[in-house]
Amino acid sequence: MGSWLEGGPSGEQGGRGARLGLPAQGPGAAAGLGRRAAALVVDWTVCLLMSATFFPATREGSLLERADSLVTLVIFAAENLLLVGLLGFTLGHRVLGLRVRTAGVGPEGPVADDGRAPGLMRGLVRTLLLCGVIPAVVWDADGRGLHDRAAGTAIVRR
């Protein structure tokens, strides 16, 4: 018997996302690390450019050197909270064909995906933990970071 960090029973019953009722491949399958990381790079770059353009910390240097790191983080948090909470995806998710869905396991099995955005409360929990970095880089056997697990969400392919 293993812990949820090691994979446990869900890893033995069909791989990543199987316990959540996600398909193994195709639309609705758990998103891979490469796509999720690329989406994060897109989101952070856009937020960095917005920070440097509208709230520069200095007037010298290249555009990216002008960005204020705290302002960039605030813009990133606002983007994640509003877009994930209300639409179910960030700009990076959209570009890379991903979406955030409600996901979890209840007493009667996997929570069904109704296709709607997770909502602002799930978005808030997810965003606060995502900005804390550590929860986002620790996964469970279903391929979810701790931020997604705590919020009851999962990133899936569209």
As residue ranges, the low-confidence spans are 8-12
- Tell me about the largest β-sheet: 2 strands, antiparallel
Helical content band: 40-55%
Element-by-element helix/strand order: HHHHEEEHHE
Q: Which strand order does the major sheet show?
A: 1-4
Our Rg estimate from Cα atoms comes to: 17 Å
Beta content: 5-15%
- Total number of distinct structural domains: 1
Structural class: mainly alpha
Shape: elongated
How far is the first residue's CA from the last residue's CA?
33 Å
The chain-level mean pLDDT equals 87
Report on this structure.
It comes from Cellulomonas gilvus (strain ATCC 13127 / NRRL B-14078) (Cellvibrio gilvus). The chain is 43% helix and 9% strand. It is mainly alpha-helical and 158 residues long. The chain has one domain. Strand 2 and strand 3 (109-110) form a beta hairpin. The longest helix is centred in the first third of the chain and has 22 residues, at 33-54. The protein is elongated.
Features:
158 residues, mainly alpha, two-stranded antiparallel ribbon, 43% helix, 9% strand, elongated
Short description:
The protein is mainly alpha-helical and 158 residues long.
Question: What's the SSE blueprint?
Answer:
Blueprint: H1 8-12, H2 33-54, H3 69-86, H4 91-95, E1 98-102, E2 105-106, E3 109-110, H5 120-131, H6 146-151, E4 153-157
Antiparallel strand pairs: 1-4, 2-3
Helix pairs in contact: 2-3, 3-5
